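Re: the request from the purification team.
They wanted to know what the chain is likely to look like in 3D before they choose a buffer screen. I agreed to run a prediction and write the result into the notebook, where they can find it.
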Amino acid sequence: MVPHELVTSAKTWQHREGILIYCGIDWAEKTHDVALVDDTGQLLAKRHITDDATGYKILLDLLAEYGDTAENPIPVAIETSRGLLVAVLRTGNRQVFAINPMAAARYRDRHSVSRKKSDPGDALVLANILRTDMHAHRPLPNDSDLGRAITVLARAQQDATWNRQQISNQLRSLLREYYPSALAAFDPWRNGLCRREAHELLKAAPTPTRAARLTRVQLQAALKRAGRQRGIEADAERLREVFRADWAHQPALVEDALGKQTLALLLQLEAACTAADQLAEAVEEAFPRHPDAEIILSFPGLGFQLGARMLAEIGDDRSRFADARGLKAYAGSSPITRASGKKSSITRRWVKNDRLNAVGYLWAFSSITASPGAKAHYRRRRDQGDWHASAQRNLFNRMSGQLYHCLQHGHRFDEAVAFPNPSALVVAA
């Protein structure tokens, strides 16, 4: 129970018209602490709820007791933007603010210099953040259900792609230790270690000694199991020559042990490749159904995967960013100025949406070959002394502003409008 001296009853509160209420929730894995304060900073109520349907009902009933309605919901601050609790709170028109835990820790120091900490105290700190500085924080965007579903799929596919590359790098590093002939054999193939042909060959011969014994028939059978239909005989002959060339070898026992490690890594790589491919298919199925897909795909360099990742990070809430500068800062493409006294420096941003920033570099790289104006802009930046990454970032900064404009006004990308005179481009700051 809440101490009587700390809590104003709902009946008393109902007669205080014009009082604003703020809610803070200290999120945890199994339980949550809730605090309600009014606009004077007085603690009205606090609860300890469980992370289940019963706990969510207690929370909603508590909010309703203190005046929460569909027309005038109580804003909520919480340290996460995901999970079932957030999904319940986002029902309707409620503003939910995801406060960075590091920012919340700084606010905690405003109330106590002893660095004491408790979960109920953190909930009170979060509520007071909204009471004093709600204007300085952005609520979670009001994206559509389809947009949020695409966000889940696009991020999962991006994670699967990164995971696949990480395991591929581990396998490549392992093969360099004892099996360089495999790397030489797979080198002519694009994404060699991620291809099914490479997987079947490594299963058939996880060590260079066994690979040198493979016959033409066995090599052709491995390629056929991988789904190859053309060039099988020529590739089998090339592989046989590579595997039977002179290579250095580890001791036999060490080589066999490394071969078993390779097979274990190969299982992980196959699972990662399958996950990435299946999620890519899911993205390509869901993304075209979104109303913004047509505009996003009209931009040079943006296909289904990159376009879906772009939509996943910027969302479809048109009021999320006040202007194009907000989107550029969120993506980390615009520079940041640090000034103190007579010293000032202009550098790239470190605090940003890392997923969106990663998409930006891929988008800029692809647009260079797909758009004459983008290529001219990139070349102009390089000629003025920018490094490759800096020129790419500047191009991404320019095109993200164009994307913001097109989404706000419902226009498709127009090369003539975006880059009216490639030979006299105005370089964005």
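For the purification team: The beta strands are 21-26, 31-38, 43-50, 76-78, 96-98, 336-340, 343-347.
Please add any questions underneath this entry.
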